[in-house]
C-alpha cells in the first residue's frame, strides 16, 4: 500500500462527506505517524498495528491520545477496505482501554475572577468580557467562537449561530451575556474595521481563533489562573449536568455527533449527581427507617 497516496484519497473522501478540516487533520495525523514508523519493506498486519500502538505509548503519549490514534487508523482502514475489498489489518483488533479521568473545570469563583479581570470600559475590556461570558454560557469551541458573524448574533432571541464539526447550529445564551454582548457591540461601532462581517475584532481587523486564545490566556494571568478556551467547554458540560440538564440536550448544544463524548465531559458532574441522588433518599439504611 502507498499510504501517502491512499491517505490523500481518504482525505478527499472525508471532505466529500462534509467532515471538518480539524477532523480530517486528526485522522491523517495518525495515518502519517504510522507511515513514518513503517520501513520500506514493512507489511501492514495486525501485529504491525499492535506494535505501533506500543511505540506510541513508549513515546509518552497519554492513553486518550493513543486511543484517538487507534480510532483514526480504524477509520482509514475501514475506508480502504470499502474501496479495495481487501481485509483491514485492524479487523480483529480491540481498542486500547482508556481510563476516563474527569476533565478539569473552572469553579464559579474562578469564573468570577476572570470576569472581574475585564471590568473596564475600554474596547478590549468589553470584547474580552463578552468572549469569556459567551464561552461560559455555551461551551462552544474556539474555532466556533471565531467564526461568529454579526448576522449570526441574535440579541433579542439570545441565540448565536456557530459553525462547527457537525455543521451550523444555533446556541442559546443567558441575559447577562446578552447585556455584555450589547455593550461590546456599542464599542465595536467605533472600531476602524466596524464594517467587517465578523463579530470579533482586534487591532488589525478580524480577531482570529489564535487571538481569542491569547486573550483568554492573558485574562487568566490577570486573574491568577491558568486557563484556555477548551476549559470553558469542560465547565459548561459539567455545570449543565450538575444543574440537572439532560444528556440529550447537552449533546445537541455542544455539537457532538454521538453521545460518546458525554462519558468524558460528563464525568466531572457524575460523582456529584450520584451523591445528591443518594442523599435524596436512596440510602438503604435510611430507607429501612421508613418501612
What attributes does this structure have?
DNA polymerase, domain 1, 291 residues, mainly alpha, hpI Integrase, Chain A, 3-stranded antiparallel sheet, globular
Strand content: 5-15%
CATH superfamily of the largest domain: Intergrase catalytic core
Largest sheet properties: 3 strands, antiparallel
CATH class of the largest domain: Mainly Alpha
Number of DSSP-assigned strands: 5
Strand order of the largest sheet: 1-2-3
Average per-residue pLDDT, rounded, comes to 87
The CA-CA distance between the termini, in Å, is: 69 Å
* Bulk shape: globular
User: What's the helical proportion of residues?
Assistant: 55-70%
Structural class: mainly alpha
User: How many helices in DSSP terms?
Assistant: 14
| Rg value | 23 Å
Order of helices and strands: HHHHHHHEEEHEEHHHHHH
- CATH-derived architecture of the largest domain: Orthogonal Bundle
Q: Remind me, CATH topology of the largest domain?
A: hpI Integrase, Chain A
Amino acid at each position: 500500500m502507498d499510504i501517502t497516496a491512499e491517505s490523500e484519497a481518504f482525505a478527499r473522501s472525508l471532505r466529500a462527506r462534509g467532515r471538518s478540516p480539524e477532523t480530517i487533520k486528526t485522522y491523517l495525523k495518525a495515518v502519517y505517524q504510522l507511515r513514518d514508523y513503517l520501513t520500506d519493506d514493512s507489511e501492514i498486519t495486525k501485529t504491525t498495528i499492535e506494535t505501533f500502538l506500543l511505540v506510541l505509548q513508549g513515546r509518552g503519549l497519554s492513553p486518550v491520545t493513543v486511543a484517538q490514534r487507534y480510532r483514526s487508523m480504524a477509520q482509514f482502514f475501514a475506508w480502504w477496505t470499502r474501496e479495495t475489498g481487501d481485509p483491514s489489518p485492524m479487523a480483529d483488533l480491540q481498542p486500547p482501554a482508556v481510563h476516563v479521568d474527569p476533565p478539569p473545570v473552572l469553579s464559579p469563583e474562578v469564573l468570577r475572577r476572570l470576569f472581574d479581570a475585564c471590568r473596564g470600559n475600554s474596547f478590549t475590556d468589553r470584547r474580552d468580557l463578552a468572549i469569556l461570558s459567551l464561552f461560559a454560557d455555551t461551551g462552544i469551541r474556539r474555532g466556533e467562537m471565531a467564526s461568529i458573524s454579526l448576522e449570526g448574533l441574535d440579541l433579542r432571541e439570545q441565540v448565536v449561530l456557530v459553525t462547527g464539526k457537525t455543521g451550523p447550529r444555533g446556541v442559546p445564551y443567558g441575559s447577562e451575556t446578552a447585556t455584555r454582548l450589547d455593550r461590546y457591540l456599542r464599542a465595536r461601532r467605533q472600531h476602524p474595521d466596524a464594517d467587517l462581517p465578523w463579530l470579533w475584532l482586534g487591532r488589525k481587523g478580524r480577531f482570529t481563533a489564535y487571538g481569542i486564545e491569547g486573550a483568554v490566556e492573558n485574562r487568566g494571568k490577570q486573574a491568577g489562573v491558568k486557563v484556555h478556551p477548551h476549559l470553558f467547554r469542560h465547565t459548561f458540560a459539567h455545570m449543565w449536568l450538575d444543574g440537572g440538564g439532560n444528556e440529550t440536550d447537552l449533546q445537541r448544544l455542544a455539537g457532538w455527533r454521538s453521545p460518546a463524548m458525554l462519558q468524558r465531559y460528563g464525568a466531572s458532574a457524575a460523582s456529584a449527581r450520584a451523591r445528591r441522588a443518594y442523599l435524596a433518599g436512596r440510602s438503604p439504611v435510611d430507607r429501612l427507617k421508613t418501612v
